[in-house]
Amino acid sequence: MKAKDRADIIARIFEMKVKDFIHYLKNEKPFGQVVAELYTIEFQKRGLPHCHTLLWVSPPYKIHTPEHLDQFISAEILDPVVDPQLYKIVTELMMHGPCGLAKMKAPCMFVGAHINVEYCGWSMMIKYLFKYISKGADRIRAKITKSLDARFICPHEAAWRIFNFHIHHRNPAVQVLSVHLENMQTITFKDKQPLQDVVDDPMIKKTTLTQWLKNNQIDDSGHHLTYLDYLSKYKWIARGKDWCRRKSKKTPPIGRLIYIHPTCGELFYLRMLLSHQVGCQTFNDIKTVGDVIFPTYRVACEQLGLLGDDKEWTYAFDDASSWETAEELRSLFAHMLIFCDVADPLALWTKQWRRMSDDIVQRAAADSHVVNLHVNEVDLQQYVVYELEILLNSNNSYSSLCDYGLPMPPPHLLAELKNKLLMEERNYDRVSMSQKKEVMVSALNSKQHIIYETIMKASLKNHQLLMFVYGHGGTGKTFL
Length: 480
Hints:
The chain is α+β, with helices and mostly antiparallel strands. The chain has 4 domains: 3-73 and 117-137 and 153-171, no CATH class; 174-307, no CATH class; 313-425, no CATH class; 435-480, no CATH class. Helix content is 40%, strand content 11%. It contains 19 helices and 13 strands. It has helices at 7-27, 66-70, 84-93, 123-133, 155-162, 195-200, 208-218, 266-274, 283-286, 297-303, 311-321, 326-339, 345-352, 360-368, 377-394, 413-417, 420-425, 430-442, 446-460; strands at residues 34-43, 49-57, 109-110, 113-114, 140-143, 147-150, 168-171, 174-177, 234-237, 242-245, 254-257, 288-289, 292-293. The strands form 6 sheets. The chain has a 3-stranded antiparallel sheet with strand order 2-1-7, covered by helices on one side. It has a two-stranded antiparallel ribbon with strand order 3-4. Strand 3 and strand 4 (113-114) form a beta hairpin. Helix 1 crosses helix 5 and helix 8 crosses helix 10. The longest helix is centred in the N-terminal third of the chain and has 21 residues, at 7-27. The radius of gyration is 30 Å and the shape is extended. The protein starts with 6 loop residues before the first helix and ends in a 20-residue tail after the last helix. The model has no long low-confidence stretch (mean pLDDT 81).
């Protein structure tokens, strides 16, 4: 009998290794003080488990310079003369050579486990990382007599789930905080439950928001805290639906306001205020600024300087871009144009269009069947504009980008995308080539420069020109 025949033992041992690994990261601190961690367990095609882990470190340990990064991660081939031992390790074991049972002493192995380390230095990558580790198991679609959407569970995953080991783990926890207008909270009840009992039940109406307001009425020690920050000093008791003073020294949960679409009007502005107002005891207090109770949450936002210059739409887009895909962001932008009063659509487009372009290169490569396609910035903008125009045209309003003062996509764009020959010819980086041209032109001698200027003038004016450049070998004909 071999180890692969005992899925239960493999699951138990791997679960112990994961716990030991997390303990090592938090206590030995190889990357610094860990303030949060998250991991997901996945099972490879042959069934063996592996772990995707995300770590957050405290500000003093964040990486800010390349030299600091090199202390943890190195992706270079070292000088064989200066450091022959590391050169041998990198070239023999990390290019990427055998590891695991074949070479347990490989540098990518930690206590018998294979380790890959990556550093995330860009906030937009967080969205990709979360989606990657939370994508779930691979699935297959089969059509026999009817379509089946199914997945295969290997013995190791079955054992893991039977033992009730964590598939997902995160620390600290995330507490979802409800957002609703006064007396507009969501109520859930059973089908056969009498409606009068539902109306008379005081517990069913309690939410984290209503109890935050009530707790501020009887406990003034949290008046300096916003709704989001309340979790740092208070704990939400789900069973009793109430807040109580936090006694534990453990890391408190992270508060997260539920997402509200900007087209929801007052509810959207209420959510904005809950991130700024402190010590509120009633819903009127939330829309009070400087002892003045304003009639709407939007007006209160204006008085706090949260609106104007499309700040609310910028805030909504920035908030959504942390987790939504590029396709979803384009849909959000289209909804803003149609249903929201965007004062300057062009300014909002100029600021946000890059976030809507993350998937454009892959889609263009798939349409044109060109591998490793490079799309220049101008073309990238046109592709995003094209996708937005489709969204606007498919909406019931039948609107168009030109209605909002935004650039229209060129009519020939779709044909160009499907023209493989054209896309291959345009598959170069215009910015880098323009910079290279400036350097090369500055290196021309006087006679070469005369020829260059003559050709360029004829080309720009669309004039015919026949020239013959003659010179001995090594005089710079090829360079020109």
